[in-house]
Design brief:
The complex is a heterotrimer of chains A (413), B (200) and C (166). Helix content of chain A is 63%, strand content 0%. Chain A has 13 helices and no strands. In chain B, helix 5 crosses helix 6. By secondary structure, chain B is an alpha+beta fold. In chain B, strand 3 and strand 4 form a beta hairpin. The chains are: A mainly alpha (413), B alpha+beta (200), C mainly alpha (166).
């Protein structure tokens, strides 16, 4: 690519295609034979670098954010090394991720003597690898999907299934009954919430008519002449689907209020009790990556991916929009964590099967009604009623009948 | 309606989050060691020896009576009496401690030594940041390290010091009056003795 | 017969052998999951994206977990000390040989070796969806009915157990 095309692409529109042109430039510097390989390696390293850094910053921001919500300052001692320059010496605690990372790297790796060594070793890897695979189909910006697949959404959910196997491997190989118990609970939770997750994602697929994530995002862009984008979240079924998807995603990544499997005060660390040092850090990393992947999918399906909400604002680069929405969703998850108490296991399962599954099914009918009634004012009223009335009814009937009486015990026979 | 409680809860936490930046008093954390909670008046950590005046060794109130050494439960005080005497605040000559050691790592801050001292010579300090790298003798405090001025005691325990000061002033006044009365009586006796041979 | 196919086939066969010969039952189940993954890779190599991903989602994500749950809830997975090969192993070898001969004859007589390759099918998701909803809608509904019956049956069995357990 010669310099004029390079600068033309760079400067228009805005910095939108900055990374695409950078990558093309780098790839063209290598001989023709290994160019596909170089292209793949560049994509992979970019994803790992960006999301690794995002994970590190998220841990610090989460701790400080939770602290502020709880009326305390959060970590504010650790700055960057060799950076003691006057008032910036502490960097307000934003170097905490470095300290934590180094600590987990140099901690002793303890493996229980009776543990299944091979499975114990493979479990953290088999958590991180599927989640990193899931990142490869998310559209990060215009023309910035690492792999363009026809069945992208199916690929995403397929590799998400690999994480469940990892949870089981972790719980089983530790030969610890609490670990196994935590793994069973985590598996039950993940499997139960997988169904509302997929069903609420299907609504967007049904309307757009394709499983390819980039096409779903392009379908949500504002048409020429429209000032508001066609984000799915601006429709009644999309809003309901978004909320359902978010709740299911919170449960899938074992995040408060659904963090029974890893509740620190409950079962200590659930299925990764016996992991220390770097393996624990890998589990932690895998969970946060899962959170990012789910948030990325929610953004793609309902929040319009890399499109701007108002057509006037499309001068801001597309990847900036995507990452801005990702930050907003992460902040929402941190906010939820600071607000809600932990949900008990049976309450969790009831919620998934008796509340979210019926609502997700009704939402599917809802999106069909929306499609066939055109999408105007009438559709708005009808679709809101279709999803709103069952929501209110279920809310009243399901959870109102639980009277709190004296506790009865049932002993194992 | 289902979900109302969650929304209300999120509003409360949002208010907390924003409020913690706008109103610093919301944060109850005391960021040690840059900030410290001032000690209460009755706080006690480890004992120290009180001296009056400017010279620490000359003004030590302790008369080496060794009551505190005997009463201390973990026996962390070690005293050796001096051979000579020096006058105290009422003028009476008293012994003084040649060696007065307290092992602060053993001391349990029970304040019994303070309670039994008849001379108000040993009081409780409020300083606790005594960490040292010397693990064998670093926390064995000698007489010179233990001696602190009465002004320091006045600063950390004002009401107690006011009461003690009032008592000591009274004692001194009584001692002076007694001394004056003794001197007058002696002068009168001397004058009478002188007057008698003149007569006879 | 290129290199990628050789690698995938080797992976599948080795993990299938592992699923047969390993002592620890949980190791066998995990090797089975790897076998399923190998099959999915074969589908992907043939260009059938939908089938490949559905294979991972269904087999690795659900069936393997099911097998593992079954192992967990019924036995501790410890080595029982039995012989790896049963006493009447020649019977099993005979049956396996018969199955192999049947499959080989089918593959021989099919279009793969007979150079009678039919028209290439369009493996896109849209085509599969259209076919499912038009040509194959009856099998789809029957399978859906079967799955619903299985789900309801499972719920009823679990409820009955709870009642008898009381």
């Amino acid at each position: 690519m010669d310099s004029t095309t390079f600068f033309a692409n760079l400067a228009a529109p805005g910095f939108d295609q900055l990374f695409v042109t950078l990558k093309a430039l780098l790839v063209s510097a290598f001989p023709e034979v290994i160019q596909p390989l170089v292209s793949i390696v560049l994509s992979i390293s970019a994803i790992i670098a960006v999301f690794g850094l995002l994970f590190a910053i998220t841990t610090v921001v989460e701790r400080k954010g939770l602290g502020r919500i709880q009326n305390r300052p959060g970590p504010n001692r650790v700055g960057l090394p060799w950076f003691h320059v006057g008032p910036l010496s502490h960097l307000n605690g934003f170097g905490q991720w470095l300290a934590d990372g180094i600590k987990t790297l140099i901690k002793e790796d303890i493996v229980p003597r009776s543990a299944d060594k091979v499975i114990h070793f493979l479990a953290p890897l088999s958590l991180v690898v599927p989640v990193l695979l899931a990142f490869s189909v998310l559209p990060f910006g215009r023309n910035m999907t690492p792999i363009e697949l026809d069945a992208g959404l199916l690929f995403f959910f397929a590799v998400g299934a690999g994480t469940e196997l990892s949870v089981f491997m972790a719980g089983w190989s530790s030969r610890n009954k609490y670990s196994l118990l935590g793994a069973m609970r985590a598996l039950a939770q993940m499997l139960s919430y997988e169904i509302p997750l997929i069903l609420s994602a299907l609504t967007a697929v049904m309307l757009v008519g394709t499983l390819s994530l980039n096409d779903i995002v392009v379908a949500q862009e504002a048409k020429p002449g429209q000032w508001l984008a066609n984000w799915h979240v601006f429709t009644p079924w999309g809003f309901a689907g978004f909320i359902l998807f978010l709740i299911a995603a919170t449960a899938e990544s074992n995040r408060s209020p659904f963090d029974i499997p890893e509740g620190e005060s409950e079962i200590i660390a659930g299925y990764y009790i016996e992991y220390s040092g770097f393996k624990f850090a890998i589990f932690f990393l895998g969970e946060y990556f899962g959170l990012f992947a789910m948030s990325g999918l929610a953004i793609t399906l309902f929040l319009g991916g890399w499109t701007a909400p108002i057509a006037f604002l499309s001068f801001i680069p597309s990847w900036m929009w995507f990452f801005g929405k990702l930050f907003a969703l992460i902040a929402l998850f941190i906010w939820l964590r600071g607000t809600l108490p932990r949900v008990r296991m049976d309450q969790l399962m009831n919620f998934a099967w008796k509340f979210m599954l019926p609502l997700a099914l009704i939402n599917l009918v809802n999106v069909a009604v929306w499609h066939y009634t055109g999408g105007g004012m009438v559709s708005w009223v009808v679709c809101t009623l279709i999803i709103g009335i069952p929501y209110l009814l279920l809310g009243r009937t399901l959870f109102a009948g639980q009277k709190l009486g004296p506790r009865t015990y049932r002993y194992a026979s | 309606m289902l979900g109302e409680g969650i929304i209300k809860g999120m509003a409360v936490t949002a208010k907390n989050f924003v409020g913690s930046y706008r109103d610093p008093e919301r944060l109850t954390t005391v960021e040690y060691p840059e900030q410290r909670i001032p000690a209460k008046e009755n706080a006690r950590q480890f004992p120290f020896l009180v001296f009056d005046g400017d010279n620490p060794m000359a003004g030590l109130r302790c008369v080496a009576c060794q009551i505190c050494e005997k009463e201390c439960p973990p026996q962390c005080i070690y005293i050796e009496k001096s051979k000579d005497k020096k006058p105290d605040h009422t003028g009476k000559p008293q012994f003084y401690p040649a060696i007065f050691d307290i092992d602060v790592s053993v001391c349990m801050s029970c304040q019994i030594c303070v309670e039994v001292c008849p001379f108000e010579a040993i009081k409780m300090d409020t300083e606790f940041e005594l960490s040292t790298e010397d693990r064998f003798g670093g926390l064995l405090l000698h007489r010179e390290q233990l001696a602190k001025s009465v002004l320091h005691h006045r600063k950390i325990h004002p009401t107690e010091e006011a009461e003690i000061e009032a008592r000591r002033v009274e004692e001194r006044r009584k001692a002076e009056e007694k001394a004056k009365a003794d001197a007058e009586a002696k002068a009168k006796a001397a004058a009478k003795k002188e007057a008698v041979p003149v007569q006879g | 017969m290129d290199a990628i196919f050789a690698i995938i086939a080797a992976l599948t066969v080795v993990s299938a052998a592992g699923a047969m010969f390993l002592r620890n039952l949980v190791h066998c189940a995990l090797c089975l999951a790897v076998t399923f993954g190998g099959l999915a890779l074969l589908y992907l190599k043939l260009g059938a994206q939908f089938v490949g991903f559905a294979q991972v989602l269904v087999y690795v994500g659900a069936v393997a977990i099911l097998i593992l749950f079954a192992i967990l809830l019924t036995r501790s997975g410890q080595d029982d000390g039995h012989n790896l090969l049963s006493n009447k192993w020649w019977l099993g070898a005979g049956v396996a040989g018969a199955v192999f001969v049947t499959l080989a004859m089918c593959v021989q007589g099919s279009f793969v070796t007979g150079n009678r390759i039919p028209a290439a099918a369009d493996p896109s998701v849209k085509a599969i969806g259209t076919a499912l909803m038009s040509n194959y809608v009856l099998p789809l509904e029957v399978i859906a009915l079967l799955l619903t019956a299985a789900l309801i049956g499972a719920v009823i069995i679990a409820q009955k157990e709870k009642e008898t357990g009381k």
